Amino acid sequence: MFFLGGGPLEAAKNREVVITVSRHGFNGARDYVLEVNEGETITIVFRYGDNDLSENNPHRMVIRGINEKSAVIDESNPETVMVFTAANVGEMRLICFIPCTGMKNLTSAIIRVKKMPSSAE
Ligand SMILES: [Cu+2]
After folding, report:
1. Largest CA distance in the chain
2. Of 1, 36, 104, 112, which has the highest C-beta tally within 10 A?
3. Does residue 31 sit within a domain?
4. Could you tell me the distance, in angstroms and rounded to a whole number, from the CA of residue 88 to the centre of ligand 1?
5. How many domains does the chain fold into?
6. What is the CA(45)–ligand 1 centre distance, in A?
7. Nearest to 34 by CA among 80, 104, 95
8. Residue 1: inside a domain, yes or no?
9. Which domain holds residue 92?
């Protein structure tokens, strides 16, 4: 991928992550943690993972703190993309905020924003 005005260092500040969302959690885990670096622009691709259910089970995600919301993913719209910049060091909660089967597994994921290694000391 090439970014206007940026060399390899700029490109390294951008990260794409694919996360499958299902009643079992984010990538199947209730305690999913995504670690990113301060200043990175993160593209999250959310994929619907409940196709083995007989009924539709829509999910819609929000990142608490920055209030970034995804579109709904479900059987008819199985993929959506969310882009945000990790501006501040710290932790933000990533949750599904619409009632769904397995919601209890989708309320405690964390996006952890770390200081860039080069500026840690
Ligand atoms: Cu959900």
Report:
1. 53
2. 36
3. yes
4. 26
5. 1
6. 15
7. 95
8. no
9. 8-119
* Ligand 1 centroid distance, CA of 21 (Å): 8
Centroid of ligand 1 to alpha carbon of 13 (angstroms): 29
Give the separation between CA 38 and CA 91, rounded to whole angstroms. Answer: 11
116 Cα: distance to centroid of ligand 1 (angstroms) = 32
3 state DSSP class of 119? helix
Q: CATH number, domain at 65?
A: 2.60.40.420
| Residue 2: inside a domain | no
Tens digit of each residue's pLDDT (9 = 90 or more) over 52-88: 999 999 999 999 999 999 999 999 999 999 999 999 9
94 CA from centroid of ligand 1 (Å): 11
The predicted model scores a pTM of 0.86
What's the pLDDT band for 13 if we cut at 50, 70, 90?
confident
In this structure, is residue 15 part of a structural domain?
Answer: yes
